[in-house]
Amino acid sequence: MSTDPLSIWLAGGLTLDSEGQPVNPLKWWIQQGRAGNTHGGLLQMALDVLSCPATTVDVERSFNFGRDYISYRRHRLSSSSLTRGMTVAFYSRNGKIASGVLRKWKVDQRNKEKKKQKGKGKGKGDAVENEIEIV
């Protein structure tokens, strides 16, 4: 008999519920993890595999979102700007940024830029804050 975790787990047979039906594998592995049974390292692999989307719809949606974000006039965006912009747009579309936060941030950035232009040479050590609070 083999001693590797996969062979041992496979030899255990199918796990059935009280009605004789196969259990939901994702729920079963989550329960095993909560009980502290990692099955020799198989737990994390099983959770990774079973929690992958069954289709590529999410991936395709992400690519379409990126295509919509980058117009022909914006094709020279740096990867950093693209990543930041798509992240903010995604969070905004999904209600993760409170209403009015982006507008307030934009106004604050304009005001900081105006102060910077007025006081050129003064306060060279001032840092510009570029953070947006995500809820």
Automatic annotation (TrEMBL):
Residues 112-122 have a biased composition (Basic residues). Residues 21-82 form the HAT C-terminal dimerisation domain. Pfam families: Dimer_Tnp_hAT (PF05699). It comes from the Eukaryota. One of its GO terms (molecular function) is protein dimerization activity. It comes from Puccinia striiformis f. sp. tritici PST-78. This is HAT C-terminal dimerisation domain-containing protein. Residues 108-135 are annotated as: Disordered. The lineage of its organism: Eukaryota, Fungi, Dikarya, Basidiomycota, Pucciniomycotina.
